[in-house]
Structures are given as structure tokens and as C-alpha cells.
Amino acid sequence: MGLFQYRTIFPLRFICRYASTTRLQVFQNAVQITDPQRIRNVGIIAHIDAGKTTTVERMLYYAGFIRSMGNVDDGNTTMDYMEQERERGITITSAAITIPWNKHRLNLIDTPGHVDFTIEVERSLRVLDGAVTILDASAGVETQSLTVWRQANRYHIPRIIYINKMDKPTANLSMCLESIRQKFAIEPLLLHTPLGYGKQFTGFLDLLNETIISSDKRSNSALSDLLTKDRAKLIEKLADIDDKIAELLLFNDKPISSNQLTEAICRLMVNDQRYVPVLVGSSLKNLGVQTLLDAIVNYLPTARVIPGTSATNVGTLMYIFKTIHDRQKQPLSFARIYAGSVKRRMGLTNARTNDKEQVNKVFLPFADNMEDVDEIRAGSIAVLSGFKEASSGDILVANKKPNLTSHLHDLKQQYTFLPDPGLEAPTPVFFCTIETYSESGQKQLDIALKNIKREDPSLRVRVDEQTGQTILLGMGELHIDIIRDRLKREYGLETYLGPLNVNYRETPRKSNQQTIVWNSTINERHATISITMSIDPIVVEDKTIVSFSEVKLVRTEEQIFEHLRKDHLDAINHGVRLALSSGCVKGAEVINVQVKLHDIQLTGSISPALYSAAASDCIRACLRHAECILLQPMMRVELVCAADRTQPVLEDLARRHSQIIDVQQGTGNGLQESMSTIISRTPLAELIGYSSTLRTLTSGQADFTLAIDGYEPVSNH
Fold first, then answer.
1. PANTHER family per the record (predicted)?
2. Percent of the chain scored above 70 by pLDDT?
3. Which of 101, 180, 516, 532 could form a disulfide with 599 if both were Cys (CB 3.0 to 4.6 A apart)?
């Protein structure tokens, strides 16, 4: 075959690069790699059921970490270690693992693909240097694929696209590439030519490395000719977008090497993310996973760190992106180390609170197993025990300086890859009451929910002031059901959930200003507070919501608020939040509103509680005159059904007050000709229990996915 290599992959005889090594040796191999140039921090992101967990399971096998491969359907994969994940066959929480590959350390994070757990993807992306986006070859870019892609765009993360499941009967590479162009708005660089589709898929041509990878033992010259032809097309495409390849093609008589093409792709990954490498394979059939591991090493960026000279003022610097509660090790914090190193018994300072924290132990993550180590250096991901209050979004440093906040700001300006402190969780769309079956269990419930809330920032917990009931606010039915299941399994708590309700919002349509006078008499001491406040609607164009942050002081010549202390202002803000937490239309939270304090007059001694109560009453008075309206969460629905059931499904969506965005039919969507895709925008309230209705309408021949698509006023119905 001349210059070409032919690698035969036998699906039933797996090739493991470290077949003779033990798990301990794999761990030791990974620990020894500390050079950031040889570290890759990579996330696996995709729509649900695209094959993320199956792909990672194969990666672990080929790296020698496991001796046999688990299966999602059997509930025995390494990364889906929670009981709920194994029972339901889906990923619920992001899981991290460290493996060696080709003398590099790969820190992999397998993220969920379900819309209810988007927060797991969001916080993982903050600390990643690259990502692998996995697509189902029969579906192309799906709803959640687009969501996580846009999340990665916000952090400017270089990506590889891996088109999985090429062995499915409805696999359609042309459709996938076109959906990548249209929905991701990028140009795919196809590095592989598949050999067959569906049951006939036996492998692919690796165009860069001039290798034929196939499970078919037979070889023929036609494949070599096809490889030469497709490789030439790839080189021409790269020459159009990379000057160095263009020069080599025009002025160099020597063939362009694989290394030169790899360097060109790396330049594009860093400098021009409009072009993304695309690989193909079938992880279930063990075709393409080793090539994907090689691509992670060759194309994705090295671990980004702050050089020692710039980090001397803070020493060690880390960002906590995830916290879990382990019964043996107590709270465990997942941290990305950006400068210095982290060791046992090390003292740190939380930049947000200025509180001291101490590291008890340092672990290297291996899914639900943690390997104890002495030290982890910059560029890698560590799991730390011992933190008391530090939570997701906190930045911790070793050396506390008087101007720490200013110094971190300067570092962020110089090293833009540093994550911003804090973590903004998505707005919950459902809520329900939760109760224990005995009064004695309420205290346990409060502790358990506090722990789970620390792990999961998208969960909100509040207490109804009138009834005293505990209320859970979550991202969806599955999210809240998982919380209830965890309370039972992990904390031994039997709980009762009230009816699931849509988490509506309210917003004012007009501005309003009110003055409230409060009189108080305590122990014959009289006090009066007169407060003038106003509310103004905030106009948003992208259907997002803006929650209240703090009161804006309107200073004038007559009122400069010189006697308003910080604790008084904090009390006023607390009162405003209390008033905005329950609007006057449906008792829902009021959003998209700006609050101003115009004047405050006092006589006598005023307690902070009185400041809070007066501010709360004043804002409630403003709301009553501001013509507030109710807002409802809208969902983008992508539905695939049998073509002959399209009309009944459309009629049912119309009854649910849906806006039909698009109806697609035929193989142009990677579907069989007998299938249709319907895309709509539907009020969330109309989708409760929709699965059962859709199953009845289509005799089980349909599936749908949801994604939050902003809020809009509730119609008259």
C-alpha cells in the first residue's frame, strides 16, 4: 500500500495500549505528568443519548484504567456512578477522571446532556481548555447540542466534533455536516472519510495520518486512491484558510506532512474558531475512540496557567467549580489550579469572603474514586477536602494581600482565561412544596437540603412565610424527582412532594413612586421613618430576566444620604427583596425592575428592622400602582414523530398555544422518509404531562426535547 498504513480493528478483540498495566500503574503514570504542556483539560459535551458516557468508557479502557468496558444500558459504566444515573441510563452530574495517553495527562469531564442539568455543563466549561462535542450521526445538531455549544462559545473554548453512531441505520454524514454549518455557524473540517454507513460501517480513512482504520481485514487499492483524493481536498481547503499551508502547496515541491497539517489545525483552533475539526466513528463498536484520544492530544490546547512571575503575589491560585458531599471524606471541592500548587494541610484565603480555609487532603479524581496524593501542580484539576464554607465559583489564594481584589482583577485583565468569580445559576422554572412525614424529620431535611443546595446551585430552597412550608425550586420534573430520590437514598428521608407548579414571574409595566411614613413606639420612645422610593421597568430585548441586586441611591443637593450607614442600607435592600419576592398578581417573584431610594427622613432611634419593614411596605405600594403583569417560561420544543401523525401532533400543539417555528420532513434531517421534525415555542405550563399525551397521539412513535427559551407575558387565556 505504499506510504499508507492499514490498521485493522477487531470489534470483539479490543486493543488496549496499556493491557499489561494495573490500575495503580495507570494512576502513577498520570501523576508523574506535571508539565502543563502535556496536560489537557477536556470536557465531553453533547445532547442526551449522543454517546458521551459510552465514548468515555472506551477511552478509559484504551488508557488501561479499566479491564472491561461497562454499558449504559446495563448500568455499570465508570462515569455514571450515581444509582439514579445507572437506573435511568442518563448522566445527571458531571464526573471527572484523570488518565494518561501518549505521555500526556488527560483530565476528562463527562457532562450531562439533559436540559435539567445545564448548570453542570456551565460550571465545568469555566475551567476547561478544550472540549469534544459529540453528535449522533442520525440526528445531527440537536437542541441541547446547540445549548452547550453556545455555552462553550461564551468561554471561547476550542472544540473537536466527533460524529458518533455511524453504525446506526439512519446515519447521515452529509446532514450532520450541513446542520453543523447552519446551527453552529462554523465550517467543519472533515478529517475522516467513513467506510460505509449503518450496518455497512466498517471504519474510516484518517486523512491526516494517511491511515486506513477498519474492522474489515480486506484491503484494496481503491481505498488508497480514495484516501489520496480526499486528503488532497482537505489540503486545498486548509490552504484557503491558512497562509502557511498555502505557501507549502504553491512553493514547496515536497509533500505536505501530517505534522504540518496538524500544526495548521492547531493554529485555527486558537486563532480562528470558525473552523472545527470533525472526526467520525462508532464508540459502541470501538471504532474511532483511539483516534479521538490522539486528536485531543494533537489539536486541543495545553493547560493554561499563570506563570510564576505573575503569580508571586498570590502564590497558589485556584477556582472551585464543583462541590460534593462524601460521607467518608465530608465536603469535597473540585478545583482547577491556575498557579502554584496545592498540598496537604495548606492554608488558603477565600477571595470572596476573606475567610481562612485549610486543605486536609489532596486527591486526583477518578470518577467516584479519589486517589490520595501529596501535591497537585498548576494546570491540573484537584479534589480537596477540608473546606468549611468555600463553594462553587470561589477563588482561593495562598498569600492574602491587602489589595487582593485589585490584584485578581489585574490578573484577569492579563490572563483572560481566568474564570470570573461567582457562578450564576439558571432561573428555576418549576416549584413544589416538600414535607417530611414526621416533625422530627424537618431538621434533618433542612440539613440535607443545605448540603444538596451547596452541590447544586440550580436548586433553590425557600420557606413560605404564611404557611411555613419548605418549597423546592428546580429546573424541571426530572430535576426535582432526582432531589427527592437523593434525600431518600443518601439521607434516609421519606418526603412528600406537593403538586408541581410553574415558576411564573411578574414585572411592572410602568414606573411608580411612593412615600411611606412609619411610626414606632417602644418603651415610650417614639420613632418615625419617612421613606420615598420608586420602581422602573427594565426593558430586555433577548427574553432574559434581570433579578434585583441592590437599591440605587438618587442623590440631590437636598439629600446626599450622609447619615445612611451600611447596615441601614443592607436592611433596606433586605426589605426590597422581601417585597419583590411576592408580587401582587400571583405572588410570584418580581423581575426586570430597578429600585431607587429618593429620600429618607428619621426622628428618634430607628432599628434596622424598621428600615427593612418601611422599605418593604413602600415597594409593595409601588407595585400596586405599577400595572404589573404575569410572565410565563417558554420552552423550545423539538419533536420527532411518524410522518402520518404530524397533523394530530400539530393540532394538539395549537391547543397548547404553541408558536410553530418549523416543520421538516424526510431524509434531509437525517430521518427516515416516514419521520417528521416539528419545532415549536410552547408555554411550559402547557407541557406538564405532555409525554403521556404524545405517546397516545403517536402510538409511541415520537420523542421530544425541551430547552428554556425565555419568558413572555401570559396571554388572556
1. RIBOSOME-RELEASING FACTOR 2, MITOCHONDRIAL, TRANSLATION ELONGATION FACTOR G-RELATED
2. 91
3. 532
